[in-house]
Design brief:
Layout lengths: L2 H52 L1
Length: about 55
């Protein structure tokens, strides 16, 4: 009788870990996307600065 709640809480813990892992993966993907966007913006900005310096 005492073992049943433990099994249940272990199942909940596993589900929580899965949710955390999933949320972490999504967070990492979005971070990479933001980093790419910022890098692209900075690259374009740098390019225009160099074009401005030449003229």
């Amino acid at each position: 009788m005492t073992q049943h709640p433990m099994t249940h809480s272990d199942g909940n813990r596993a589900a929580t870990d899965d949710r955390k892992r999933y949320a972490h993966e999504i967070y990492q993907q979005e971070s990479r996307q933001v980093l790419k966007s910022v890098t692209n913006i900075l690259a374009v900005d740098l390019m225009w600065s160099l074009v401005g310096l030449k003229s």
